[in-house]
Amino acid sequence: MSDAWLDEVCWDEQGLVPAIAQDIHTGRIMMFAWMNRESLKLTVEEQRAIYWSRSRKRLWRKGEESGHIQRLHELRLDCDGDVVLLMIEQLGGIACHTGRESCFFRKLDQDGEWQVTDEVLKSPDAIYAGKVSHE
Amino acid sequence: MSDAWLDEVCWDEQGLVPAIAQDIHTGRIMMFAWMNRESLKLTVEEQRAIYWSRSRKRLWRKGEESGHIQRLHELRLDCDGDVVLLMIEQLGGIACHTGRESCFFRKLDQDGEWQVTDEVLKSPDAIYAGKVSHE
């Protein structure tokens, strides 16, 4: 496989592209993060989600500390070429660093309050036990 | 409803937040766009997706030209508060300006080629007939 497909991605001025991770089994949106060219290339090579951490300015192999790896099943590109969609299998069933299935665990109710709709499946302390920092 | 919920959104340095639109019936990711504070407020007030067009630097009432309005069913916020997810009903069944159901109509195949997986349901000429410009 050549790298030509990477040239069809429209990287932003920081060399990044937004990445949406969707659970292939449930259809749920698990998280949203960013990728640079290297991380997207590695994501396909290793068949697991590898993001670019903007805060830590380094590659972020999702699950590297938590074990909550995202196995890649399908990679999609949008019409403008500037957003990628990853259909993934979420190992451990937890994508969020708070210990919830999805990062999108708050829903706006009719009173204009963000309500938490998801329970914590595993405490962050347990997820990141013995690790220097969480994801 | 007060506007306090808007203060819990972490806007980026341009005052924007990424917005993912997911079809509430099929679970398919239809498109990705950006919102500013005004557009997100209006999205909730009018119960339809209203984005901020970065290229045109104005509010973009999705469907204003095409008729392909996105009715809001649910609004979600992620753990960091910097991405919103809209569960929507896609009027006309077409979200993409190319006339396809979803903007994510290209899939990377095993040979490293982006393959178009979705058919054009309605030609852009027909969608935007008589309009100055398409979305």
From TrEMBL, chains A, B:
<feature type="binding site">
    <location>
        <position position="96"/>
    </location>
    <ligand>
        <name>Zn(2+)</name>
    </ligand>
</feature>
<protein>
    <recommendedName>
        <fullName>Phosphoribosyl-AMP cyclohydrolase</fullName>
        <ecNumber>3.5.4.19</ecNumber>
    </recommendedName>
</protein>
<dbReference type="InterPro" id="IPR038019">
    <property type="entry name" value="PRib_AMP_CycHydrolase_sf"/>
</dbReference>
<dbReference type="GO" id="GO:0005737">
    <property type="term" value="C:cytoplasm"/>
</dbReference>
<comment type="pathway">
    <text>Amino-acid biosynthesis; L-histidine biosynthesis; L-histidine from 5-phospho-alpha-D-ribose 1-diphosphate: step 2/9.</text>
</comment>
<feature type="binding site">
    <location>
        <position position="79"/>
    </location>
    <ligand>
        <name>Zn(2+)</name>
    </ligand>
</feature>
<comment type="subunit">
    <text>Homodimer.</text>
</comment>
<feature type="domain" description="Phosphoribosyl-AMP cyclohydrolase">
    <location>
        <begin position="31"/>
        <end position="105"/>
    </location>
</feature>
<keyword id="KW-0028">Amino-acid biosynthesis</keyword>
<feature type="binding site">
    <location>
        <position position="82"/>
    </location>
    <ligand>
        <name>Mg(2+)</name>
    </ligand>
</feature>
<dbReference type="InterPro" id="IPR002496">
    <property type="entry name" value="PRib_AMP_CycHydrolase_dom"/>
</dbReference>
<feature type="binding site">
    <location>
        <position position="78"/>
    </location>
    <ligand>
        <name>Mg(2+)</name>
    </ligand>
</feature>
<comment type="pathway">
    <text>Amino-acid biosynthesis; L-histidine biosynthesis; L-histidine from 5-phospho-alpha-D-ribose 1-diphosphate: step 3/9.</text>
</comment>
<dbReference type="GO" id="GO:0004636">
    <property type="term" value="F:phosphoribosyl-ATP diphosphatase activity"/>
</dbReference>
<dbReference type="GO" id="GO:0008270">
    <property type="term" value="F:zinc ion binding"/>
</dbReference>
<keyword id="KW-0862">Zinc</keyword>
<feature type="binding site">
    <location>
        <position position="103"/>
    </location>
    <ligand>
        <name>Zn(2+)</name>
    </ligand>
</feature>
<keyword id="KW-0963">Cytoplasm</keyword>
<keyword id="KW-0479">Metal-binding</keyword>
<dbReference type="GO" id="GO:0000287">
    <property type="term" value="F:magnesium ion binding"/>
</dbReference>
<keyword id="KW-0368">Histidine biosynthesis</keyword>
<comment type="function">
    <text>Catalyzes the hydrolysis of the adenine ring of phosphoribosyl-AMP.</text>
</comment>
<feature type="binding site">
    <location>
        <position position="80"/>
    </location>
    <ligand>
        <name>Mg(2+)</name>
    </ligand>
</feature>
<dbReference type="InterPro" id="IPR026660">
    <property type="entry name" value="PRA-CH"/>
</dbReference>
<comment type="similarity">
    <text>Belongs to the PRA-CH family.</text>
</comment>
<comment type="similarity">
    <text>In the N-terminal section; belongs to the PRA-CH family.</text>
</comment>
<dbReference type="GO" id="GO:0004635">
    <property type="term" value="F:phosphoribosyl-AMP cyclohydrolase activity"/>
</dbReference>
<keyword id="KW-0378">Hydrolase</keyword>
<dbReference type="GO" id="GO:0000105">
    <property type="term" value="P:L-histidine biosynthetic process"/>
</dbReference>
<dbReference type="Pfam" id="PF01502">
    <property type="entry name" value="PRA-CH"/>
</dbReference>
<keyword id="KW-0460">Magnesium</keyword>
